[in-house]
């Protein structure tokens, strides 16, 4: 696959990515290299990456525990302490090897350490390949509040090695498909249509769809890198989805992966779209059917509606305390800064549950 240039960096694929990584290391006279992994990527992904790196520079491995519950300032503090103890200076490079938790948190750690060291992302999950590692958003959660602390700064490069998809469970693969479906719904009807029959996808098909999904996000981010207007459209499904993900985060038997929560959020916000923007009812029902068939149908207890709505009050898109949604006018056409009453939000839960 051909590399994708952005305004500040490039997204490289497979073996080309490692060649570009070695060029970067050779041309920048780094003093040391730190590879951030979690327990999963340490076991499944680190060895092949190390085999591709050609350098005599000191390489140190930093490992964190896997899971969204560890994406917090405590983990950052332990990494900053480790970097300091290992003598990291401003000419060091951090390589974030993992899913969205690792790339979000690792980028934030790199941006803040000594006011910023270079970093690159090597996403290992489908979700991070098409979304989390691209666009320069770095940050951590604050308690149950998703991505409440962070900065926008782009990496030196992103390397998408699709061989790492072989390390994922089917549930993790499905989680990534949610963001790809979102990209189609907000900006590219053909991309959405190509994703409708997921059961018949081959790995070759998936490579092409990953590429197309990255292009959708790249196009949006380049027009609005700091999320003042257009980039907000990437949050379709996330206002309710993030609140649902946060609510269930520490409920072990009910915890949802990011994509599973966003799939529910897209159904709920498609319903709001039908009521507020006259989004076509047939399309609404088809979206609901497709997402439930793909991600399952975990019901939301009515006793939890108020708690989930309360979590939405901290969403970063809100203005003057008013919850703001991204809603669909049509597939491929959406509107930002939309408001919905609590009654209508509760109706969306009922629509999803039934």
UniProtKB/TrEMBL annotation:
<dbReference type="InterPro" id="IPR050071">
    <property type="entry name" value="Dehydroquinate_synthase"/>
</dbReference>
<dbReference type="Pfam" id="PF24621">
    <property type="entry name" value="DHQS_C"/>
</dbReference>
<keyword id="KW-0456">Lyase</keyword>
<dbReference type="InterPro" id="IPR030963">
    <property type="entry name" value="DHQ_synth_fam"/>
</dbReference>
<keyword id="KW-0170">Cobalt</keyword>
<dbReference type="InterPro" id="IPR056179">
    <property type="entry name" value="DHQS_C"/>
</dbReference>
<keyword id="KW-0520">NAD</keyword>
<comment type="function">
    <text>Catalyzes the conversion of 3-deoxy-D-arabino-heptulosonate 7-phosphate (DAHP) to dehydroquinate (DHQ).</text>
</comment>
<feature type="domain" description="3-dehydroquinate synthase N-terminal">
    <location>
        <begin position="62"/>
        <end position="174"/>
    </location>
</feature>
<keyword id="KW-0479">Metal-binding</keyword>
<dbReference type="InterPro" id="IPR016037">
    <property type="entry name" value="DHQ_synth_AroB"/>
</dbReference>
<keyword id="KW-0547">Nucleotide-binding</keyword>
<dbReference type="InterPro" id="IPR030960">
    <property type="entry name" value="DHQS/DOIS_N"/>
</dbReference>
<dbReference type="Pfam" id="PF01761">
    <property type="entry name" value="DHQ_synthase"/>
</dbReference>
<keyword id="KW-0862">Zinc</keyword>
<feature type="domain" description="3-dehydroquinate synthase C-terminal">
    <location>
        <begin position="176"/>
        <end position="318"/>
    </location>
</feature>
<dbReference type="GO" id="GO:0003856">
    <property type="term" value="F:3-dehydroquinate synthase activity"/>
</dbReference>
<protein>
    <recommendedName>
        <fullName>3-dehydroquinate synthase</fullName>
        <ecNumber>4.2.3.4</ecNumber>
    </recommendedName>
</protein>
């Amino acid at each position: 696959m051909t590399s994708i240039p952005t305004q500040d960096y490039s997204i490289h694929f497979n073996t080309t990515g490692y060649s570009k990584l070695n060029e970067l290391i050779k041309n920048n006279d780094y003093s040391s290299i730190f590879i951030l992994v979690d327990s999963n990527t340490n076991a499944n992904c680190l060895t092949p990456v190390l085999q591709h790196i050609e350098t005599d520079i000191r390489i140190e491995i930093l490992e964190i525990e896997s899971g969204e519950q560890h994406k917090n300032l405590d983990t950052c503090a332990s990494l900053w302490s480790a970097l300091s103890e290992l003598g990291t200076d401003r000419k060091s490079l951090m390589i974030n090897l993992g899913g969205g938790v690792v790339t979000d948190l690792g980028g934030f750690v790199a941006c803040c350490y000594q006011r910023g060291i270079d970093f690159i992302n090597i996403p290992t999950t489908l979700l991070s390949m098409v979304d989390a590692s691209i666009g320069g958003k770095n940050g951590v959660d604050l308690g149950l509040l998703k991505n409440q602390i962070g900065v926008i700064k782009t990496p030196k490069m992103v390397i998408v090695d699709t061989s790492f998809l072989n390390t994922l469970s089917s549930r993790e693969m499905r989680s990534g498909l949610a963001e790809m479906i979102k990209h189609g719904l907000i900006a590219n009807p053909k991309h959405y249509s190509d994703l409708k029959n997921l059961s018949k996808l081959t790995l070759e098909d998936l490579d092409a769809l990953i590429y197309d999904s990255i292009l959708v996000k790249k196009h949006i981010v380049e027009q609005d890198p700091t999320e003042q207007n257009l980039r907000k459209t990437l949050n379709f499904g996330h206002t309710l989805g993030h609140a649902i993900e946060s609510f269930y985060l520490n409920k072990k038997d009910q915890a949802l992966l990011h994509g599973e929560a966003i799939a529910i959020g897209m159904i709920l916000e498609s319903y709001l779209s039908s009521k507020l923007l006259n989004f076509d009812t047939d399309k609404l029902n088809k979206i609901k059917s497709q997402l439930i068939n793909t991600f399952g149908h975990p019901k939301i207890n009515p006793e939890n509606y108020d708690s989930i709505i309360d979590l939405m009050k901290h969403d970063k898109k809100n203005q003057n305390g008013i919850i703001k949604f991204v809603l669909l006018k049509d597939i491929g056409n959406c509107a930002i800064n939309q408001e919905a009453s609590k009654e209508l939000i509760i109706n969306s839960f009922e629509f999803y549950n039934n």
